[in-house]
Amino acid sequence: MSASLPSFRFYVGAAASGLLFGLGLAISGMIYPAKVKAFLDIGAIGSGGWDPSLAFVLAAAVLVSMAGLRIAHRHRHPLAAPTFSSPASRRVDVPLVLGSIVFGIGWGISGLCPGPAIANIAFALPDILIFLVAMAVGSLAVRLIRDRQNPGDERTQAQP
């Protein structure tokens, strides 16, 4: 397997993972911003307007991830890639905290995060397209800022 060109297994695995993830988002209702906002609106608990159903989706996702990680740790290398991908740092730093805050604010305002927004491309709704453009612009802005601050930092370089 070439280091510069992923294998056919990689693409099949990515397509299967993406399809499974997208189906899970659609079945759970996470592609609907109103449902997500109803979950995030904990102030509506007293009035009965809070929708706790996504807590079960989150719990199921944690269980599936835990099972997948346990299986992965039993193997020396992944099935469809040359090596396992791990975070470069386990440190909680300012960019991580600020990024989490911005992500949470964006999720609360729009009712979308990147996965459901991409799954919603099929509907081509103007709100989704605006969200995706804004997400892309934000990602590009962060990359440009990091490149200017740390020109030699490998974390800022494009991944293959």
Which terms would index this structure?
160 residues, mainly alpha, transmembrane helix, DUF6691 family protein, DUF6691
Helix content: 55-70%
Low-confidence stretches: none
Strand content: under 5%
Total beta strand runs: 0
Terminal residue distance: 14 Å
Total DSSP helices:
6
Structural class: mainly alpha
Radius of gyration: 18 Å
Biggest sheet descriptor: none
How many structural domains in the coordinates? 2
Q: Return the string of H and E elements.
A: HHHHHH
Shape: globular
User: What is the mean pLDDT?
Assistant: 83
InterPro entries: DUF6691
Transmembrane segments: 12-34, 54-72, 92-109, 121-145
Keywords: Membrane, Transmembrane, Transmembrane helix
Protein name: DUF6691 family protein
Task: Please describe what this structure looks like.
With 160 residues, this protein is an all-alpha fold. The chain folds into 2 domains: 86 residues, no CATH class; 72 residues, no CATH class. 60% of the residues lie in helices and 0% in strands. The chain contains 6 helices and no strands. α2 crosses α4. The longest helix has 24 residues. The protein is globular. 9% of the residues are buried. It comes from Kaistia terrae. Keywords: Membrane, Transmembrane, Transmembrane helix. This is DUF6691 family protein.
